[in-house]
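[SOLVED] Predicted holo structure with adenosine-5'-triphosphate

Edit: marking solved, answer below. Original request kept for reference. I posted the sequence and ligand SMILES and asked for the 3D complex as structure tokens.
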Amino acid sequence: MKKITIAIDGFSSCGKSTMAKDLAREVGYIYVDTGAMYRCVTLYALHNGLFDKDNNIDIAELEKRMPQIVLSFSLNNTTGMPEACLNGENVELDIRSMEVSKRVSHIAALPFVRRALVEQQRRMGKEKGIVMDGRDIGTTVFPDAELKIYVTANARVRAQRRYDELKAKGIEADFESILHNVEERDYIDSHREVSPLTKAADAIELDNSRMTLSEQKQWLLDRFHEATEQ
Ligand SMILES: Nc1ncnc2c1ncn2[C@@H]1O[C@H](COP(=O)(O)OP(=O)(O)OP(=O)(O)O)[C@@H](O)[C@H]1O
Ligand SMILES: Nc1ccn([C@@H]2O[C@H](COP(=O)(O)O)[C@@H](O)[C@H]2O)c(=O)n1
């Protein structure tokens, strides 16, 4: 069967990576979480003092250091899923912290950061057989992707899912802070100048607010079969 490129974009915490991972596992494709790449650059900036006390970014210094920020993914043999590495160190857990979540959309709005990461993402997907999730995959990274999905869900539903996930992991969480973060990132991501989050004209929209995990998995698998049978 011919291999295709699958782009999954949408709002924060709406289930993009869950859907993308499930599909990649099911059909034997590579999965790439592009949000993790922006989170790694943010973690680098945090660890290297590139935010001041008011959270302003030292943009000139970050731009100078971009070539030193090496991003990669290593396979977790237990889950079979790729995990983010920053300069060779596995940072999969660190990049999910609220400290990173609060700052990542500001880093992701910087044109030189986007240029560098989009270039890497295109290289990762050049052989096709890839499921990539993010905000600009169907619009900018792979505008010719054979299957594009745009996922939405009610903001309170998304925040509740994230809250439940953190609680289940035994991590202290506050619903209102999570909701605020989700809504703030949606706003910044949709209003930035370069590659704002928007539905590609040829993307299929899915509102999964009332869908179960298994229903959305099956829904995506059906779209995959339609796209590969054409
Ligand atoms: N249909 C669903 N019903 C219930 N929970 C769901 C559903 N889809 C995803 N979730 C849960 O919601 C949480 C967020 O999902 P996920 O991490 O896949 O979102 P995301 O869009 O990739 O988020 P982000 O943009 O922040 O990376 C996870 O805990 C996931 O298990
Ligand atoms: N293609 C992308 C992917 C992500 N971003 C930015 O990164 C943030 C974190 O992404 P998650 O998927 O882990 O939530 C996100 O809020 C965006 O600011 C992006 O710009 N483009």
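OP edit: Residues 175-191 form the longest helix (17 residues). Thanks to everyone who chimed in.
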